[in-house]
# Entry
Amino acid sequence: MTRTSFMTRKELIGFLILAAVIFVLLPAVLDSFRLNLFGKYLTYAFVAVGLALCWGAGGILSLGQGVFFGLGGYCMAMFLKLEASTPENTSIQSTPGIPDFMDWNQLTELPVWWQPFYSLPLALLAVVAVPVAFAFIIGFAMFTRRVGGVYFAIITQAFAAILTILIIGQQGYTGGVNGITDLRTLLGWDIRTDEAKTTLYFVNGVLLFAVLLIAQYVRKSKLGRLLIAMRDQEDRVRFSGYNVANFKIFIFCLGAAFAGIGGAMFTLQVGFMSPTLVGIVPSIEMVIFCAVGGRLSILGAVYGALLVNWAKTSFSEAFPELWLLGLGGLFIAVVMFFPNGLAGLWSEKIEPQLEGLFRKSKPVEPAESAAPSSRAAAE
# Structure
């Protein structure tokens, strides 16, 4: 059996180009406000990369990735809210020392399940562990019963709706429809300043590349090859003796972990977390990010998240009432004309043209004439 290299030359160049875009080009050409917007876009790229593994490699279409994005975001928001809710900052409340929305809803003490979030290490652990735990429960319940395809997609969408309703209904514990807002500091560091937003943008970029390297390792490993085999011929893989359900559960949980990290970084970058980022609509938008970029490419998923969110912002600024139509039109156009997304457009159309131009422009060294050599030999 031949071993697959971790990264080909073309893939390395792709990683370097993306690094140049994120760490050099965008900071050089954008002001602090726009750079903060792209920092928010990068948080969605975490979800898109996870979807590229689940959907692109494993054939698992999840329409509920907003659940894991929101859970990670809420875990981080809970820590930040507790840090902002010191007795001194909340002295005007009926019950100082608890978040303001709890006081408004006449709670007199902090719920027990909030108390671990006084600790940053526990909060960071929860950012990954809570989405993974939810993903494991869903995956184990579905995949061990061989539920897949459109049925699995609908079930994950239902979970997104259920969690949204639960968060809104438990206003005294979650902030309700407003979410958790007025987040100020991280261990005393003011996250609301332009300098902090810029720093968080670069932290986003570094974490995103760590996630990309993990995803690249999975794609090139035996697990990655098995995922592709399961996507194309699941029954054949099962008859070969592999436990297909376990592999699906693992990759689904990995995608949830990526989404949870993205949600936590969104909370830090933007300064709030609300149920509008958990439900059905944001979950479908996250699938659009992956589809536009190319669900078979982890780098394409990142570009898709950046492009779609930039287009969404541009459409909403120029045409406030029509931006949803524009976003939908972009998705339809990509699906109809470029089914493999931006990555497919590059590999199938643009890259061959560039290689052809490169070969034509490369000078051909003239071959030495054979006749003089023959004469020289005769002499």
In short: Residues 9-282 form one domain. The chain has one domain: 9-282. Residues 50 and 212 are 9 Å apart (CA to CA). The longest strand covers residues 185-186.
